[in-house]
Amino acid sequence: MRNLILTLLFASVVALEGQPVLDPMVRDRLERLFPTATDFSPKEGSPPHFKAFIEQDGQRVVHGYAFYTTDLEPLERGYDGPIQMLVGMGLDAEITGILVVRHHEPYGYFSVDAPEYGAQFVQKSVRDRFRVGDDIDAVATATITVRSASRAIRNGARRMARAFLTPNGSK
């Protein structure tokens, strides 16, 4: 019921203002990925992404990007289905953090949900290998989940970097 009320509230604000409104839960997650950001865009574009902004010399400038792994890598599956993660990436092509949003993994609470799993991606370059057992820690009994999640993060981040951080694609 609470979600229905929030949805109706957002829909009415959008109808009144004509501008998309960022869901407060999404904003909270984005603030965790970009603690110094002053504002965020709604999800937009191709590939679908959020922009994090900072104030610089009185101007609002892009500070980084965030994306859902399920938007960019929809066919990547863990042991028991898709693992939706929100991934932040700075303009230096390094991961600012990851947050597991939704999954149905039987072992998720000690694999991808564990703080140590997400922490190992912070400041990881999209150019890194992202190989489980090499530069990503493996978790016994959760190999499929960890490998799939790591590939989704790597492939999604590289796709975002090609679209927004290359000289031809910079925005």
Any key phrases for this structure?
alpha+beta, 171 residues, 20% strand, globular, 5 strands, single chain
Report on the structure:
With 171 residues, the chain is an alpha+beta fold. It has one domain (26-164). 33% of the residues lie in helices and 20% in strands. It has five helices and five strands, in the order ααβββαββαα. The protein has helices spanning 2-17, 24-33, 69-72, 115-119, 143-164; strands spanning 39-40, 50-56, 59-68, 84-90, 95-102. A five-stranded antiparallel beta sheet has the order 1-2-3-4-5, sandwiched between helices. A hairpin with a 2-residue loop joins strand 2 (50-56) and strand 3 (59-68). The termini are far apart. The model is unreliable at 12-16 (pLDDT under 50).
Helix proportion range = 25-40%
Alpha carbon gap, first and last residue: 39 Å
What's the total helix number?
A: 5
What is the string of SSEs from the N terminus onward?
HHEEEHEEHH
Number of strands: 5
Total number of distinct structural domains: 1
Major sheet summary line: 5 strands, antiparallel
Please state the average pLDDT score.
86
Q: What is the C-alpha radius of gyration, as a whole number of Å?
A: 17 Å
- What fraction of the residues are assigned to beta strands by DSSP? 15-25%
Low-confidence residue ranges:
12-16
Given the helix and strand composition, which structural class is it? alpha+beta
Shape: globular
Placed side by side, the strands forming the largest sheet appear as 1-2-3-4-5
